[in-house]
Amino acid sequence: MRERHLDIAVPEHLGEGLVAVQEGSHLDIDLKLESLHEGVLASGSVTGTADGECARCLAPVSLPVQVEFAELFGYPADEPFDHQLDGDLLDLEPVVRDAVVLSLPFQPECVDGCEDLDLGPGISLITADAEREKPVDGRWAALQGLVQDQDKTEER
Ligand SMILES: [Zn+2]
Q: In this structure, are strands 39-53 and 26-35 parallel, antiparallel, or unpaired?
């Protein structure tokens, strides 16, 4: 069995959600390579940091990423594995990418809980949806006109 420690600068961000491992940030990978009958088992752990925004208050959040992976890279064979050895090479990138992306929370929140927004006096916070008028559906627009006309009629 061989062990390797890799320190990788992420070439492009991992994750499409509110938090992602950002381009240029570092991932530490402890990698074990074991030779098996069918191929090479690559396993280990990835640690790093995902940065983004809290889903509740949009404050910047920085979340630790720690995820395990294990994937068999098969020798070329009649029944191909999901991952194949390419000569002496194995491409770990999609394995690490999948493990990291799947570990990222869909609704990230501030680690210590969201702090109440501290707004100055006289500023009120209007939450979306609550106060916003619903957009008028084009099909009802004509009816809205009728109602307004009726109001005017009653005023007379
Ligand atoms: Zn928050």
A: antiparallel
